[in-house]
Amino acid sequence: MSNSSRFHRLQRLLFLSLFGLMVAACASLPNVSDFSQTEPANANLATGNSPENTLLTKRTPSVLANKLRHSHVDLKKLAALEDAATSTPLISGNKITLLFDGPQTLNAMIEAISNAKNNINFETYIFDQDELGLRFANLLIEKQRAGVQVNIIYDGVGTLGTPAEFFDRMRNAGIKLAEFNPVNPLKRFGRWRLNNRDHRKILVVDGKIAFTGGVNISAAYANSSLFRSKKKASGSVGWRDTHIKIEGPAVASLQLSFMRSWSGQASEDLPDLDYFPTLSNAGDKVVRVVISRPRGDFSLYKAYIQAFQNAKTSIHITTPYFAPDSQMVQTLIDAAARGVDVKMIFPSVSDNSLVFQAGQSYYDQLLAAGIKIYRLKVAVLHAKTAVIDGVWSTVGSANLDIRSFLHNYEANVIILGDEFGREMENAFRDDLNTSEEITKQAWDQRSMADRIKEWAARSFEYWL
User: What is the DSSP letter of 194?
Assistant: First the structure.
């Protein structure tokens, strides 16, 4: 089961009966239609070795100029617009490693955990009690017993089907755990925020290595999606997903995010350990860590919109769930009208029919605008990535839907630069090779029953 379907099952039981009351209190995404017209100042860049330096900035536009001196993109302007949109600085000196699918991602995470010396902070939406989940839990218990402090935040809806005994076993071993926004309102006094979920997937080891992206701890990720494989599908094929490993100063931003989540959810303080060690430069990547939350500043949504508005040549998107607001759809359509090559890869099958059909309800508009749509075959698509003009890339937990931008707690990393952009473009092309293009002519021939399903699903997209 995916990182959204569990919530949808609970939603239909609890929210639809209260739909009339809740509509009156609906929040909305900000109007940023004229965002690209804002006159930007120089981009901010954070460097240094402490968590405070991820919040304090200094003016160093030359770093960006040097990185993309041969690029056709005005990256300096783009970064400055992002500064205005996200209120988070660029962070230089990082090494970013792309990880594809569950096996590669989980092996890298397990290696980092195995080598932990002081502390492990882990935040996840899904943590199943299956073969993979037990392997992960057993390793964390082993590290806790070896003297490494393990702290875990798990989402109350994402782990709805996971027995309490699974977490009790870790707790009894000394691991500190916090359930994020429990389904049962009696578990935690205060405002009950069932509709706000922690969709982040963050692992920070010793404050020196961090991971984030789309991969959950579930048997669905135990197998490869055959991405870049010459083998033919046989038996169970895993989900197609993307994660990143981060080394360098940007790790402190993800560690700080975990600390803030813990302080808002846990009743006990974390043990006083070395969570923020000195971080030296580990590479040459300039990144922006965007941590979004409900009732926040919509930083991730704004970052996407301004990147789409300023695209010059290409927008290449991979997303499993597409239920955006009209403003984002129009921004993509406007980009295509400017001559930007807009391509989007969606799943051909989904674990959630309502979200799937809501996404399909936009195909008519997108295809009519000249946007090319592809659907990944064989595997279940779960990667949440984008690369724009070959230089602006993002990997994270957020889908392109209202839920991610308005209701969920999400974490995305934006990476600026040609080299990483080429890696992302290569991965996008490889996914295109195993995808089927949906043409306007073929889409116009779908049945009336499918059209009605799309219309109905779109009517509820705010809650999806």
Answer: T
